[in-house]
Amino acid sequence: MAPQGADTLPVTSPFTGEVIARVPSATTGDVDAAVDAARHAFDHGDWPRTSLADRMAVLARVSELLGKQTDEIAMVVTSEMGCPITLSRSMQAAGPKVLLDSFLELAPEYPWRSERVAATGRGLVVREPVGVVAAVVPWNAPLLISIMKLAPALLAGCTVVLKPAPETPLDAYLLAGLLEEAGLPDGVVNVVPADREVSEHLVTHSGVDKVAFTGSTAAGRRIASLCGQDLKRVTLELGGKSAAVVLDDADMATAAESLRIGSFRNSGQVCSLKTRIVVPRSRHDEFLEAFTAVVSSMPVGDPMDDATQIGPLVSARQRERVEGYIASGREQGAQITLGGGRPGGFDSGFFVEPTVFTGVTSDMRIAQEEIFGPVVGILAYDDEDEAVAIANDSSYGLNGSVFTADPQRGVAVARRLRTGTVEINGNPVGFHSPIGGFKSSGIGREAGPEGFDSYVELKSIGLPRDLTLTS
């Protein structure tokens, strides 16, 4: 469908600072057309009424096509948001296929319908698609998060309006092409890159039944308030200020090496990163030495270079934000032991050195607010209770880690942390487990069988006790 307006959104290379592409900037009229198409496909089309097996067959073809496009996907995402290419090949390109395959494995076992028999009655409980979904995704892992929303929504029988971030629309167009090639019916998924004002028009649109948002907590609060006015279904996967709790029996070198990825993946631009490292005061210096060696070994450079581990931030605005937090840390008395500035040798690009603060206390802004850049603070504790208290002293509760020589002890500490995910010694939970946040880190869960829950409505049908169901 041709855009209704003439305005475009520039796509800027974070490495060169130059515009590499332009895409149409959706108007409110474009949003209306996209929602109308999704509404018609849901209310009158075949997709919500076809069998789960048929829907799975289409998405299995999408998975196959994703597998054939990994190199192109990696190049596109690195070009538009600066993720180091080696990480793009795994997280940004291979990750969406693995996630989609996970949902395809889980879908047949999900309780789409069940019977409940009691002395008080006999009920058929069915889970039906919630309707038209507005899926609003961020720029840091755009295709992965798009699939995290599209896969369960489409398998449930929903239709979708996908709103990519203005910084990263190119992968959304690539995905739209794959969906079409796989045989997804017209109108089932519609892509509308848009600015904030037009995005709010989508979120508040009367034709949208449910909003699925991933992004900042500030934006999430705004979306929640808008959806609340109409009692619109909403799930929010928001920011984090996650803690890695290093217990006194942990191997410090092993913990430090795990946090190479755990704290600095995607140049610090991942909401689940462990940006507060809580270490025993008695072993603080030992950990700091090991951690400094790890971070010092991470090359900063061209994100298309296989050797690069820290690339540019997504935009000049994001770099200014991160530099503001670094200045705040200095002003509030934390000490920089590594980094703190812009790396030399780059005349262009939105780079910040990987930065390590020590002497951080929980009352500092760098310990409380999400920075979303390669900046980590180290906080010291005297006993396990204090470590847990420091980890929980946050308005966020998205992720966390516990490092210990005794995994059973690690699980016990993990149970005390008020956060949606905890990794013992860096072990991931996998895509069959739900992810999401406590407190200001969000509402609802994504991935795992629980990932289907927010895309369905429960309906109970009272049945005669002697009825034999045929379908």
TrEMBL record:
<keyword id="KW-0560">Oxidoreductase</keyword>
<dbReference type="InterPro" id="IPR016161">
    <property type="entry name" value="Ald_DH/histidinol_DH"/>
</dbReference>
<protein>
    <submittedName>
        <fullName>Aldehyde dehydrogenase</fullName>
    </submittedName>
</protein>
<dbReference type="InterPro" id="IPR016162">
    <property type="entry name" value="Ald_DH_N"/>
</dbReference>
<dbReference type="InterPro" id="IPR015590">
    <property type="entry name" value="Aldehyde_DH_dom"/>
</dbReference>
<feature type="active site">
    <location>
        <position position="237"/>
    </location>
</feature>
<dbReference type="InterPro" id="IPR029510">
    <property type="entry name" value="Ald_DH_CS_GLU"/>
</dbReference>
<dbReference type="InterPro" id="IPR016163">
    <property type="entry name" value="Ald_DH_C"/>
</dbReference>
<comment type="similarity">
    <text>Belongs to the aldehyde dehydrogenase family.</text>
</comment>
<feature type="domain" description="Aldehyde dehydrogenase">
    <location>
        <begin position="5"/>
        <end position="461"/>
    </location>
</feature>
<dbReference type="Pfam" id="PF00171">
    <property type="entry name" value="Aldedh"/>
</dbReference>
